[in-house]
Amino acid sequence: MIMKKLVFIMAAVSMSWNAFSQPTAADPNSPVTLEDYLRIAATNNAGLKSSFERWRMAAAAVPQAKALDDPRFTYGYFIEEVETRTGPQKQRFSFSQMFPWFGKIEARTDAAAAAAQAAYKRYEADKLNLFGKVKNAFYEYTYLYEAIDIAQQNLELLKHFEQVAQARYRTAAAKHPDIIRAQIELALMEDHVTELNNMLSPMQSGLNALMNRDTMAALNQPRRPDAALANVDETAIVGLIAERNPEIAALQNEIAAARSRLRLAQKRYYPDVTLGVDWIQTDSARMDGVWGSGRDPIIAMVSVNIPLWTDSYNAGKQQAQSSMRAARLRKEQTQLDLSARAADVLYKIEETSRKAGLHAGTLIPKAKEMVEVSESSYRAGGVDFLSLIDAQRKLLTFEVTYQRILTDHFQALAELETLTGGAIPLNEGTTNEHE
Q1: pTM of the full predicted structure?
Q2: Domains of the chain (ranges, CATH numbers)
Q3: Sign of the dihedral defined by the CA atoms of residues 114, 116, 119, 121, in that order
């Protein structure tokens, strides 16, 4: 049964790997969407390829574990002929095959197959972790462009405010310090825009590294996916982690492998059996009329090893038992750690959803209204220029914070997908469109 599962997994992974390697209509050198980045990373990332090769290495151990040891051929030449009644013996040929005790081959094959399945699950875990890193970096990259766009818009707004201040100054309705304040704010905003643009280069280097590209290669402006805020079904998360997380599945297979190695260690108390046959070339007898003269003797042989050193076997048994207990404890602790991480991520998702609603529904509309009212009031001389600048700063802060909240929300969702091993069940009314 394990072998059938392993063969199915090998075929499925090979098909998925080949699918990643197939050319698509999109230019692989110009990723734009999240799907482009994920596809290129899955195809090119050296770490993921290494994990894939480790799985293939583990899978190749299964037929080796299933096979018998090589048969042994022995040749002997009599330097001095052995004289027998039927004639002198000249040379000897032996052939033997060792057969392990009943159940040894099955136990070591099951251990190798379970280890191969564990390696496959580790490959799946590495792919999920890679996708999580790509998503996290991609959302950060899109946030940076959003922040640049907002800063550019505020820069234009400040230029407009400067023109308003200059117009009022020409009519003696405003003082010269208003113009100076506007120019200071403009200089600060221009520096902020420059700072944000300079951050693009290291961000692109990180993304290129994940895709195994030249870190200095240029990247186009990313296209943020149309995504709604997710309302996660929290009650299903813990169950999904236990059911689908590949790290837990890998540990479960490690437990199975350790159990099979324990069975194998217990079999070491039983002997292995070697069957063989000898053929001795015999020349004709020196005397005529000897019955059986020149007849080559053929000898059937059976030999067994003697399991004498029980201290060694006991130590091997204890080693296998400790390995199985260690795997069980690692699985238990991993489940607890993942559940704790999921609780933290779920909190982040809930908080970012709440804050996003506050900013989009209240703070940003009110801040825009405040800027408009402050500008009208400033033109009429009702407020000073500092009040207008303060309103503009609040709007900038709320708009940038809103984009930061959205980015944190989708990064948290990406982390939750890594923990649960795939798509997340959502409550009614939301869709996981960012996938």
Answers
A1: 0.82
A2: 2-67+100-270+307-420 (1.20.1600.10)
A3: negative
